[in-house]
Amino acid sequence: MNSIIKPLLPLIFMGAFYVNAQTTLPIPENITAAYARGTRSTSGQPGAHYWQNRADYTIKISFDPASRLLNGVVSIDYTNNSPDTLSQVAFKLYPNLYKKGSIRNMPVLPADITDGVQIKQLSINQQVQNENRWTIDGTNMTLQTPAILPNQSAHFDITYAYTLNKTSHIRTGQVDSGAFFIAYFFPRVAVYDDIDGWNQNHYQGIQEFYNDFCHFRAEITVPGNYEVWATGNLTNAAAVYNGKIAKRLTEAGQNDAVTDIITDADLKAGDITLNKVTNTWDFEADSVTDIAVAISNHYLWQSSSLVVDPKTRRRTRVDAVFNANHIDYFNVIGYARKTVWAMSYTFPKWPYPYPHETVFDGLDQMEYPMMVNDNPEEKAEDGIELTDHEIFHTMFPFYMGTNETKYAWMDEGWATIGEWVISSIIDPKVTDTFAIDGYQANAGTENDPPIMTLSTLLDGRAYETNSYPKPGLGYLYVRDMLGDSLFTKALHHYIATWHGKHPMPYDFFNCMNAGSGVNLNWFWKRWFFDNGVPDQAIDKVTHADTKYTVVIKNIGTKPVPVDLTVYYRDGTTKLLHKSVACWQEGNRTVTLNFTAEKKVDKVVLGNGYDADVNKGDNVWVTR
Predict the structure, then answer these.
(1) How far is CA 130 from the centre of its chain?
(2) How far is CA 379 from CA 34, 342, 556, in A?
(3) Kindly report the CA angle at 385 between 383 and 390, in degrees rounded to 5?
């Protein structure tokens, strides 16, 4: 969606972090400790002792659209792969964002304030626990448990209930009288990792999530006239859908053409689901970090599929599920399909990893494994940019398992560059420069800390620019510097090394260095760690006849590429370009030479992706 650091001991850096200027990255002590324990490594590979815990979830919920009451039972088999003995287990109760007394950094209307998640019964290894065994603090619940030794498992059964929000739609809630997006709807075990131990960061609204890779089986019971879409594969289509609908769903998964699975005529006929008072929909998903559910009794459904892996001929089904009154949504199936194609074959050029991607017509702009909850947009370009941004999140944070809560830039920055690249593939008329102007306006202010500042410490404009445009530009500049082929090789090295795991920032930096064979620490440090602003200027232009020399001065400390456009008096142009590598040695000026084929009118520095806080000195006009 739309700590004091200290350098590591020099011995750890030997052969890993040196460049021409002997640049080293400052490392916090908890990361240093992970290197010493062997759970992480300076090569970018997981350490010899890397581990992560896992849980298998069986979730059974019933949802009443009239009252918005959700009743559920979640059974969890939790495996402790850590070297530590666990005497307590932390849980996340994300719906408690709406609980009275919870700390929030997003507004919630009084009508949506509830008593939060009600724990009706909790068992450990089939033993019912007294409620004094757990404490609830906002969205965190801590449960005292019998010792869970390394390589042992524990079983939890939790019966619970809560009321879904009607308004104040923060990623989840009622959409209209017959449509609901239900996310974060069950108690889940928090991440216990090698960096922080238990994730105790409260969910307050703006900062997002950090969950383990798990196996999910979900049974969702709703009134018989509602359809359900969710993360994972629907395993009982014949038990809930009329035969014609089940047939269309199968066909959509096998064909490139768009299939109208639920039409207006089907809605009027009322013969979509089997004629029951309630239906129970079964979904299953493996190795995903979350599961989300959407239901409606009046939405249309368009679907298509495409081959995402030419080697195996594996296909991904793409769905658009929407209110017929939202005319713009009839184009979303095309945007979504092209996004999945572009991700598989162009950027990041990695086969789309999941069996389906469902775009649901909701009230937010938020991603979930195999699902997005996207509001309708009036302008086509806004619909394109929203669709590809949220679907791009499939890779980051879901396939890669990054910690969104602490490092929002590790997923939002990627979704931002993904949006910039893919929007013009969907429609060549679209030039997407989302959020760059906001960064240029904010750069250098007290709301512009380094990207490496923990996202838990940020809010408002600082959170937005540090999460979206700044890292997006950083990735873009590295792509330009390495060239598309080498950048893709490095990115694939990172993806192959860390998918299904929990990479942290230094794992990313080290993987990109190793995968490209180029030590990029000089850039990582200046763009991600240091303060400063991007600010270039045309310092001097000289010429003798047709030979021109242009001196570009780097006034700021954030390095950006040099793009110089020569405008001729006949209206034609010529582009000169140097990648950000031209500033690697810390030089303050760069010289460009060109021969003018015609009379020069003016020379302009910069393009839409070259961030610059002062563009007033970026133009030279022939006198």
Answers:
(1) 38
(2) 48, 22, 36
(3) 100
Exposure string of 596-609, with b = 16+ CB inside 10 Å and e = fewer, is eeeebeebbbbeeb
How far, in Å, CA of 521 to CA of 411, rounded?
A: 20
- By CB atoms closer than 10 A (0-12, 13-18, 19+), residue 447 is middle
**Mean pLDDT across the chain, nearest whole number?**
96
Residues β-bridged to residue 574: 566
The residues facing 578 across adjacent strands are 562
pLDDT at residue 366 in the model: 98
Place of tokens 């960061």: 201
pLDDT tens profile 195-246: 999 999 999 999 999 999 999 999 999 999 999 999 999 999 999 999 999 9
Enter the tokens of residue 100: 């009275």
pLDDT confidence of residue 22: 63
Q: Which pLDDT belongs to residue 623? A: 85
**pLDDT tens digits, 594-620:** 999 999 999 999 999 999 999 999 999
- Residue 612 Cα distances to 371, 461, 534, angstroms: 36, 18, 5
Strand 314-322 vs strand 356-361: parallel, antiparallel, or unpaired? parallel
Cα 273 from Cα 415, distance rounded (Å)? 36
Query: Each residue of 290-299: pLDDT tens digit?
Result: 999 999 999 9
- Which tokens hold the place of 485? 């082929």
Which run of H or of E encompasses 226? Answer: none
| 270-296 as b/e: b if 16+ CB within 10 A | eebbeeeeebbbbbbbebbbbbbbbbb
| Tokens 């034609």, residue located | 572
More confident residue, 177 or 15: 177
What CA–CA distance (Å, rounded) separates 476 from 439? 15
Count of Cβ atoms closer than 10 Å to residue 250 Cβ: 12
For residue 313, what are its two tokens?
């001929």
Decide if pLDDT at 48 tops 60: yes
Encode pLDDT of 115-141 as tens digits. 999 999 999 999 999 999 999 999 999
Distance CA 392, CA 19 (A): 33
Beta strand extents in 65-116 (DSSP E only): 69-80, 86-92
In angstroms, the Cα distances linking 363 to 9, 168, 294, 332, 366 are 49, 10, 12, 15, 9
Stretch among 16-20, 183-187, 586-590 having the lowest mean pLDDT: 16-20
Helix (H) or strand (E) holding 560: none
Report how far residue 155's alpha carbon sits from residue 1's, in angstroms, rounded to the nearest whole number.
33
Q: Which residues contact 356 (CB under 8 A, 6 or more apart)?
A: 233, 253, 316, 317, 318, 319, 370
Q: β-strand 179-182 against 134-137: which pairing, if any?
A: unpaired
Does pLDDT of 570 surpass 80? yes
Angle among Cα 517, 520, 522 to the nearest 5 degrees reads 150
- CA distances to 391, 457, 473, 622 from 442, rounded to whole Å, are 27, 17, 15, 32
